[in-house]
Write a structure and sequence with these properties.
Helices cover about 40% and strands about 25% of the residues. The protein has about 280 residues and is an alpha+beta fold. It has three domains: about 30 residues; about 150 residues, Galactose-binding domain-like (Jelly Rolls, Sandwich), CATH 2.60.120.260; about 90 residues. The strands form three sheets. The protein has a five-stranded antiparallel β-sheet with strand order 1-4-9-6-7, with no helix packed on it. The chain has a four-stranded antiparallel β-sheet with strand order 3-10-5-8, with no helix packed on it. The protein has a two-stranded parallel ribbon with strand order 2-11. Helix 2 runs parallel beside helix 5.
């Protein structure tokens, strides 16, 4: 593809990307709900500091996992080590009377407040729950104030995951004041991405022809994009389960075989063309 043709396609691609990003942002905003009084002090707020924590926006998006959900889903954020911490800036010294943590029931979690982001005092401790999976734990009539709020975890089975953290200046009347839904296990989302990547990559490898229009050739960004998303998620779950590792191996072998076949066919076609061109 020439540079001129590529540039001709870039504006349309950028417009499509911008529209997609806007739509996804609007969808996330609608799911999380508006920032009304019952949304609390953290709804939609990103932390100013974090250590060893994945998927930070999930902690304050207003969507909590249903009781019993597994630790790793598309709704949870994982604290990857014992000293993992997340800190939010409330903007000013603020009294906090109510707090909520929806997290893995095997573990203990704490919310602490500080006025200077240095010396923290524990505001609320979420003790381990008797039931396994994601469990909602809340504290009311709390006494504490500060500008900086820190989430930390300790004890348990070493797999700390949280789907939602909320705090309020005044305890809301509706409880819990957030949406609760069933999360999709991380292994399942990886499996779906894996099959999508395999299908798209095989279709592109086996269907590619030099004589195809340039816009068709650009469809190669589809398997590339899914492949990048897949690689990122696999890295987050590493090491994978035995079943997932087996699927990854099978897809890798199949795609490698398809690429080798495509290359062999291209070389054979080139050899035939060169032979027919000889006098």
């Amino acid at each position: 593809m020439t540079a001129r043709r590529l540039c001709r396609w870039m504006p349309a691609g950028l417009v499509a990307l911008a529209v997609s990003a806007f739509a996804c942002n609007r969808l996330a905003t609608n799911l999380a709900g508006g920032a009304g009084p019952e949304a609390g002090l953290l709804r939609g707020k990103l932390p100013i500091e974090s250590t060893g924590v994945t998927h930070l926006p999930r902690l304050t998006d207003g969507i909590a996992a249903q009781p019993g959900d597994p630790a790793r889903t598309d709704l949870t954020s994982e604290l990857t080590r014992g000293n993992s911490e997340v800190t939010w800036d409330l903007g000013a010294d603020t009294p906090v009377r109510c707090a909520l943590i929806d997290a893995d029931g095997d573990d203990a979690y704490a919310l602490s407040l500080s006025k200077d982001n240095k010396d923290f005092m524990v505001l609320f401790r979420a003790a381990p729950d008797e039931d396994r999976g994601q469990q909602l734990r809340a504290g009311r009539d709390l006494v504490g104030s500060g500008r900086y709020l820190m989430l930390s975890a300790a004890g348990g089975d070493g797999l700390w995951s949280v789907s939602e953290v909320s705090v309020w200046r005044d305890c809301p009347k509706t409880w819990p004041p957030l949406a609760m839904q069933k999360g999709t296990p991380a292994d399942e989302t990886v499996r779906l991405k894996l099959w999508a990547f395999a299908a798209l990559a095989l279709a592109y490898l086996l269907g590619y022809r030099k004589r195809l229009p340039d816009w068709v050739k650009l469809l190669g960004v589809a398997p590339a994009g899914v492949g990048i998303a897949l690689a990122i998620q696999v890295a987050e779950l590493w090491p994978p389960s035995a079943a997932l590792a087996a699927r990854l191996a099978v897809v890798t072998v199949v795609i490698a075989a398809a690429a080798a076949l495509r290359l062999a066919l291209a070389r054979r076609a080139a050899a035939r063309a060169a032979g027919s061109a000889e006098p």
